């Protein structure tokens, strides 16, 4: 597959500029009047800043869910039926506890997966949504696409903490000796990760590539 | 290679049509238009602007993908019923398969969380394998695809980020360290099934070329394209001016 021959020297001809619409699922190109791709059945969405509303909505939902995820305990540990004490650990508390045990490597994994990555993701998606469609040089566009690809790739890995809680609470049901129960923060954290993933998925990478004004047809 | 294509374009009437989009491919990442052409196995087509891989056909990829999907299904079904981890301390033991876990939580308030976790680590991977098999088995046998094959494949691709078996394995490793001070833990067969699954998924991802599968679905006769692919070239329709080139 190669560039359109008459357009090799000029800036890249996009489907949008040619008055067409490209399917973001399978790549087929259709006239703008079509609403669904006839090959894969996906909805055809023009690369338009209006699509960013969904990005912002999911992102804000993810940020809201992230607050209780840090305030409430991730899990409750009960040892000797509560005689040796119950302990509740939040995300930060769990990391400090791991460092206290000396397992710094695991503490770093949890720290990165449940603090650095989610917060970095919020900032990165918000930045992308702000600059998307604004005029950019080719280098800037490449940087933005790289950031987007990193966010898209790394988003799922925040689920590690949820899985840890799920495994621990399933595994450590030793009756009298010890038991672990998931706390409300586990649900909030899972929701926050899911919302941020949806936010990243609703971001249209094609917006990065053009300083697309709101009324693009007027150009 | 691009020059060869260009010359070919000169010899034959254009096979693309800027009015209907026939014979064109738009990069899903950056919308750059490309001419559609068949690649031979082993070649890779990248977007000229953003470098996104547009097509990467491989010889025998369908058969490999079918084998890998089937493997992953077997591993996942095994992973449900075999014990995952075994923990014991002070004579209290607890061997749990994922099926036991689901049962243990079937009445709790956290049932939605457990169902979501099980869906992400077991349900969606099995569903994806099934959808891939549904799409690919007829194509590999060169028969017409089943009904809704396009929808099935589109869903399989959409669900890809939500199937998290490999993340679950890392989560297990973290959980093992946390529980190591409290009790002794033995890894069960289901854990190793999940580890194997990571490699199966990596291989499946390497062999997967969405474009080839879409083309195969199309060529195998699913009524997806009402523009006849072998019809007369649309040279009668004048191509519109491609807009400002600022």
Task: Supply database-style keywords.
heterodimer; A: 219 residues; mainly alpha; SH3 type barrels; Butyryl-CoA Dehydrogenase, subunit A, domain 3; 3-stranded antiparallel beta sheet; two-stranded antiparallel ribbon; 6 helices; 48% helix; elongated; B: 246 residues; 2 domains; two-stranded antiparallel sheet; 11% strand; disordered N terminus; disordered C terminus; transmembrane helix (chain B); PqiA-like (chain B); membrane (chain B); transmembrane (chain B)
Structure characterization notes:
The complex is a heterodimer of chains A (219) and B (246). Chain A folds into 2 domains: 1-46, SH3 type barrels, CATH 2.30.30; 48-218, Butyryl-CoA Dehydrogenase, subunit A, domain 3 (Up-down Bundle). Chain A has a 3-stranded antiparallel β-sheet with strand order 4-3-5. A two-stranded antiparallel sheet of chain A has the order 1-2. Chain A has helices at 52-71, 91-100, 104-131, 138-154, 160-171, 184-202; strands at residues 20-22, 29-31, 75-79, 86-89, 178-182. Chain A has 6 helices and 5 strands, in the order ββαββααααβα. Chain A is mainly alpha-helical and 219 residues long. Chain A starts with 19 loop residues before the first strand and ends in a 17-residue tail after the last helix. Mean pLDDT of chain A is 82; it is low at 5-10 and 212-219. Helices cover 48% and strands 9% of the residues of chain A. Chain B is mostly helical and 246 residues long. Chain B folds into 2 domains: 2-55, no CATH class; 61-219, Up-down Bundle (Butyryl-CoA Dehydrogenase, subunit A, domain 3), CATH 1.20.140. Chain B has 8 helices and 7 strands; from the N terminus they run αββββαββααααβαα. Chain B has helices at 2-11, 61-81, 98-104, 111-140, 149-158, 165-180, 189-207, 210-219, and strands at 24-26, 33-35, 45-46, 53-55, 83-89, 92-97, 184-187. In chain B, strands 6-5-7 form a 3-stranded antiparallel β-sheet. In chain B, strands 1-2 form a two-stranded antiparallel ribbon. In chain B, β1 (24-26) and β2 (33-35) form a beta hairpin. The longest helix of chain B is centred in the middle third of the chain and has 30 residues, at 111-140. Chain B is elongated and about 80 Å long. Chains A and B meet through β1, β2, α3, α4 and α5 of A and α1, β1, β2, β5 and β6 of B. Chain A: The chain crosses the membrane at residues 55-73, 80-100, 106-132, 153-178, 184-209. Chain A: Keywords: Cell inner membrane, Cell membrane, Membrane, Transmembrane, Transmembrane helix.
């Amino acid at each position: 597959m190669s560039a359109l021959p008459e357009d090799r020297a000029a800036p890249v001809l996009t489907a949008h500029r040619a008055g067409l619409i490209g399917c973001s699922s399978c790549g087929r190109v259709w006239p703008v009047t079509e609403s669904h791709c006839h090959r894969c059945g996906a909805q055809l969405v023009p690369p338009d800043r209006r699509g960013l509303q969904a990005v912002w909505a999911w992102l804000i939902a993810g940020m809201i869910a992230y607050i209780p995820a840090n305030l409430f305990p991730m899990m409750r540990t009960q040892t000797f039926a509560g005689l040796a004490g119950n302990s509740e650990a939040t995300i930060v508390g769990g990391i400090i506890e791991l460092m206290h045990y000396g397992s710094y490597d695991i503490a770093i994994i949890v720290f990165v997966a449940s603090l650095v990555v989610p917060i970095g993701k919020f900032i990165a998606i918000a930045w992308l949504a702000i600059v998307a469609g604004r005029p950019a040089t080719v280098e800037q566009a490449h940087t933005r696409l790289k950031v987007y690809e990193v966010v898209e790739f790394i988003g799922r890995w925040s689920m590690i903490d949820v899985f840890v809680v799920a495994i621990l609470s399933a595994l450590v049901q030793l009756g009298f000796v010890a038991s672990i129960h998931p706390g409300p923060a586990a649900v909030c954290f899972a929701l926050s990760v899911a919302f941020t993933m949806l936010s990243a998925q609703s971001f249209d990478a094609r917006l990065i590539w053009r300083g697309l004004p709101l009324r693009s047809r007027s150009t | 290679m691009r020059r060869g294509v260009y010359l070919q374009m000169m010899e034959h009437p254009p096979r693309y049509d800027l009015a209907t989009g026939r014979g064109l491919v738009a990069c899903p990442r950056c919308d750059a238009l490309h001419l559609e052409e068949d690649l031979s196995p082993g070649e890779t087509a990248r977007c000229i602007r953003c470098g996104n891989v547009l097509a990467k056909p491989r010889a025998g990829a369908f058969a490999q993908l079918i084998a890998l999907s089937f493997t992953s299904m077997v591993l996942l079904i095994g992973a449900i019923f075999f014990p995952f981890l075994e923990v014991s301390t002070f004579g209290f033991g607890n061997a749990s398969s994922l099926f036991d876990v689901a049962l243990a939580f079937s009445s709790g308030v956290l049932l939605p969380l457990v169902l979501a976790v099980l869906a992400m680590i077991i349900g969606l991977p099995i569903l994806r394998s099934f959808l891939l098999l549904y799409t690919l088995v007829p194509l590999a046998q060169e028969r017409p695809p089943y009904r809704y094959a396009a929808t099935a494949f589109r869903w399989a691709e959409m669900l890809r980020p939500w199937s998290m078996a490999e993340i679950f394995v890392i989560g297990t490793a973290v959980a093992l360290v946390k529980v190591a001070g409290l009790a002794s833990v033995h890894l069960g067969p289901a854990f190793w099934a999940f580890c194997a699954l990571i490699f199966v998924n990596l291989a499946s991802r390497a062999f997967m070329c969405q474009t080839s599968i879409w083309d195969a679905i199309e060529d195998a006769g699913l009524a997806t394209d009402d523009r006849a692919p072998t019809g007369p070239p649309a040279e009668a329709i004048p191509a519109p001016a491609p807009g400002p080139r600022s």
